Hints:
Structural class: alpha/beta
CATH superfamily of the largest domain: Mur-like, catalytic domain
Number of domains: 3
Number of helices: 15
Shape: globular
Radius of gyration: 23 Å
Amino acid sequence: MAFLVLGLVHRPNLQSTLKVDKLYPEGFFKNSHVVVLGLARSGESAARLLCELGASVLISDQKNEEQLVNIVSVLRSEYPQIRFHLGGHPEEIFRSADLVVLSPGVPANMPVLEIARKRGVPVIGEVELAYNVCRSPVIAITGTKGKSTTSTLAGQILSKGFKKGNVIVAGNIGTPLSKYVLGLSESDLLVLEISSFQLETTLNFRPKVSVILNIMQDHIDRHSDLKEYITAKHRIFANQTQDDYTILNADDERSYACASLTRAKVIFYSSTKKLDSGVYMENGKITAHLNDANTISICGDDELRISGRHNLENALAATAIGLLYGVTSDDIRNVLNSFTGLEHALEFVSEVNGVRFINDSKATNVISLKAALESMDGRIILIIGGRDKGNDYTSVISLIKDKVPDMIIIGESAEKIQDSLGSFTRSHKAATMKDAIYKAFEVAHPGDSVLLSPACASFDMFTDYAERGRIFKETVQTFFSKESLIKEN
Length: 489
């Protein structure tokens, strides 16, 4: 199948094996002394992989053993050779390390890491570790918002039409890459959601297809400024060559600008304009222009079961990935027509007495909150707050004024949110998620939606956004199972 890219017709053979030089020689990890920093999901998975590769592993975490007792006891029973240093990261553990592997939550600029770097020891992340033993081609997807939806959609589209091997979706979406790599073959495909935290600790990472959905201000609590955040995102294509592909959003200024920076062949997509080449909207239909004689109509935007312009953009990006790998327009259409969205992303939970409860716990920044408010109709009772990420709330002021009669604020950022948005709506503070739900239902009227879209990280009150979303759903379902607490009609 021919695909027109920047005016040239290419015939991609993306189902062939991707051969690249890996950072580490065969057998490097066997008997190497590796320090893993951070015993979260990625750190645990990295430690397991390293043990399987024969490395000598030491795990260090800021938390003490009492706080990590469950996972530590499991790892000790399964891998008794693992050593632990809990309660901090002392300098001596880096003096004999051959490699340091960071979990995404561990800042790459911690001063203590300079001990390893000055010795010439690589300091990498879990994704970079797993990539260097991965045998399958990688499709890597990043962006400030939409990563999980696009990765899931792309995985479903490829699973429908890719016949040569298995399709695995991993990474920031929930399951670390390290868990899968030893079971992957050259005929499989790996769809990898990758965050800026994971990208900043890559060295040799080279996906066959990279996707940048959008780049907007986020994680300023972690990255020193927007420039540093953008630089991290650009690492997704840093090692790509003209044999690879970069898919970019023509409607996002910073994504579009990457076309002049990548060495890979570029494919654009757009939800607002017809493109000379790429995937775009025409007369309300998702359309792929392959060449002058072959324009494919996939499906109408009214056939999608996910709402909002941001989700239309996600569908366009996933369509481009599917077409690159030879998935038919019929198979792509069938997936797009049946996909109802992700858990914790504008997920309908319940409706009681005409009040709808929507779980958008994945909205960990203001950009995602804005997209949620724009995609919903009617009055919205907003539950917002958590751990601030350097947020600027000015972009949602007009939406708050127009759509949000009441705002329930939770978490560490309550004062900042109150100062930023409190004069534009009625605001109420809540100490717990349960209190927030009670208050939201109390002020809601039939026809309103109670929306959990926090615009903040979850770590002040919850393990992660998924736990926050689960507790929201469980509380709603428990609360409204008690008839005595339901409003009278």
